[in-house]
TrEMBL record:
Keywords: Glycosidase, Hydrolase. It comes from Dipteronia sinensis. The keyword GTP-binding does not apply. This is glucan endo-1,3-beta-D-glucosidase. Belongs to the glycosyl hydrolase 17 family. Signal peptide: none annotated.
């Protein structure tokens, strides 16, 4: 990955991020609030290391990308969200997406 990031840096290209907040919930529904992934009202999450507060999963994912780039030595690289996965109707194993979106 580092050679690709070097190339992006040399050419002035941004880092393109495909962020899927709902899939993060699907991967760990016991610990991630569906409302946090779907921009609904929550208490948010505070990061004790950075003292930052996140009101939704997308913001946390974008910030995580910036933190990873900085850790890899690319602090000034821009991050652009190029794709998101917003649940509109869940598959058979994603009933929460269908139910929660039916409420909103």
């Amino acid at each position: 990955m580092k050679p690709l990031l070097e190339f992006f840096s040399q050419t002035g290209s941004p880092f393109c991020l495909n962020a899927y907040p709902f899939l993060a919930y699907m991967g760990d529904p016991e610990n991630i609030d569906i409302n946090y992934s779907l921009f609904q009202s929550t208490q948010g999450i505070s990061d004790s290391k950075t003292n930052l507060r996140y009101d939704n999963m997308l913001d946390a994912q974008i910030d995580a990308a910036y933190a990873a780039l900085e850790d890899a030595g690319f602090k000034k690289m821009e991050v652009i969200v190029t794709e998101t996965g917003w649940a509109s109707r869940g598959d058979d194993n994603e009933a929460a997406a269908t139910v929660d979106n039916a409420r909103t």
